[in-house]
Amino acid sequence: SASQSRRFTIPLCIYSVLMTVIMPYFYIVHWRMSLPYTIHFQATAEELKLPNADPDATVSYVKGGYFSTIGVYHELHGLRRLYWLLHEDYYFPNRSAESRRNEMEHATHCRTIVLKNTMCTPNTAIYSFSYNPDTDPIPVLVSGAKRQCIKWEPFHEWAESRSMGLDPDLLAQKDLMEQMGIKGGVAGGRR
């Protein structure tokens, strides 16, 4: 009925205001602190070969090993970048037009990665909606489905133990250097 539709529309409008205006300020500090930063780690040639990667076509570390990450960290990085873009006035108050164009391109890449991976390994649990206008500003998702989750802390500790930090010395991939006639050289990081 029309009255039920109106009752439902008003809470969704309240939800929209909460999520776009009020809640971001509440969660900004929590979001920055709770998301693990992107972990780049030192993979071995054998580990790269497991997903059929070619070590010669992979950026390497000056100290040995290959510049790598784990898919979940790439996805978390993407979500964080999208969040920053939603709140760019806070995170990038003095951004240039060129910087914004570059960030939009990066954000498009992030959205694509998160979308592809969500669709590749989807949560297929069935959720129903519960709604009590006296206590819930929006409908609440409910599911009793079971999921198999990893224990995040040991996994994250393992990944951190293989991290090369935020500014490692890198070598361009071997095949690219050979193509350019270069016999080695630092591609980034501290010199």
From TrEMBL:
Listed A to Z, the keywords are: Membrane, Transmembrane, Transmembrane helix
Residue ranges of the TM segments: 12-31
InterPro entries xrefs: UstYa-like
Q: Name one GO biological process term.
A: mycotoxin biosynthetic process
Keyword Transmembrane on this protein? Answer: yes
**Keyword Transmembrane among UniProt keywords:** yes
Family designation: Belongs to the ustYa family.
Give the protein name, as stated in the record: Uncharacterized protein
Q: Which organism is it from?
A: Trematosphaeria pertusa
